[in-house]
Amino acid sequence: MSEVLVVIDHADGEVKKPTYELLTLARRLGEPSAVFFGSPDQGDAVAEKVKKYGAAKVYVVDDAQIKGFLVAPKAEALQQLAEKSSPAAILLPSTFENKEVAGRLAIKLGSGLITDAVDVAAGPDGGAVTTQSVFAGNYTVQAKVTTGTPIITVKPNSAAPEEAEGAGAVEAVAVTVSDAAKGAQIVATQPRQSTGRPELTEAAIVVSGGRGTGGNFEPVEGFADSLGAAVGASRAAVDSGWMPHAFQVGQTGKTVSPQLYVANGISGAIQHRAGMQTSKTIVAVNKDPEAPIFELVDFGVVGDLHTVLPAATEKITER
Ligand code: FAD
Question: Is 214 helix (H, G, I), strand (E, B) or coil?
């Protein structure tokens, strides 16, 4: 069976959910091998986790030469691994960093690249066919790479992780990183102050607020917390200085694809839709029954968010 490389998304060995989603999708194309960039000491523990989702092999790449630098060393390391293992496809979680790694890798391998897929399946010839939302969400397209090894970044929440036991055989991989790739070094990192909420792009539920909040995000945040959700915002809310740009959903903000997206006091401009319309279920609260967001929703509530959200929060908290 063809090997499919899946790059593990993790924070200091703590494997993140998008990895399991990618392993689930990779099994449609062949036999997944997971690639762990991290400390070799953590390799066995990581392998124990990813083998539950079908990883036959776990390539452990010591990130000592990689982690202090920007993306170029990771792309070089993946190139060496791909040249050694000749995979049928390479899947990476769609993060800002991974998309840059994937772009560099595609050039190095002379391969085609598809970013921000929301689904991956095997086509009639067994090759990867992706589904993507393009042109600010106006079209959904099926695409395939026709040159080289398909390199595909997949948005978080694109698939429900399904368990399947794999062998999880650990293999240490030695890579050589060129001096040129080490041209840009990270001198300091500043962890973002934790909100205690899930990361916006990975959350299963996102509750967003727009201009309709009038700058009072308390009902939005309260409702989000009752559901264990991440908080998002429209650009109008960000431009008004009510929320930081890191919370912005849309064309010039983050792209989210949660199981549930709740838009509150957001009109549904095309640039906002571009960042959220691949969400599985969309709910909107808006006091204007003619608001364009209602064209998109699965469920709509016509009402004032300052009344609707506290009432909904109370009901959920009671349960
Ligand atoms: P509005 O359009 O003003 O809508 C507010 C809504 O709140 C209205 O529908 C109103 O009926 C409702 N409302 C008011 N009060 C209440 C209440 N009490 N209870 C319930 N509902 C209420 N926008 C983004 O969001 N993300 C982007 O990334 C983005 N990128 C852009 C890039 C470009 C190049 C451009 C030109 C624009 C971009 N925009 C983006 C801006 C976008 O066009 C809209 O201006 C923006 O999304 C509007 O935000 P909004 O829906 O919060 O505000």
Answer: coil
Best residue among 217, 270, 271 to mutate for probing ligand 1, ranked by most atoms within 8 Å of CB: 271
pLDDT digits (tens, 9 = 90+) for 201-256: 889 999 999 999 999 999 999 999 999 999 999 999 999 999 999 999 998 999 89
Q: How far away, in angstroms, is 278 Cα from ligand 1 center?
A: 18
Nearest-atom index, ligand 1, CA of 209: 52
C-alpha 97 – ligand 1 centre gap (Å): 28
Residue 319 assigned as binding residue: no
| Cβ atoms of 102 and 92 closer than 8 Å | yes
Q: Is 250 labelled a binding residue?
A: yes
pTM given for the model = 0.81
312, 283 contact by CB (below 8 A): no
Cα 140 from Cα 80, distance rounded (Å): 34
C-alpha triplet 150, 273, 266: angle, nearest 5° = 155
Per-residue pLDDT, 136: 67
Q: What's the CA-to-centroid distance between 93 and ligand 1, angstroms?
A: 28
Complex-level ipTM: 0.99
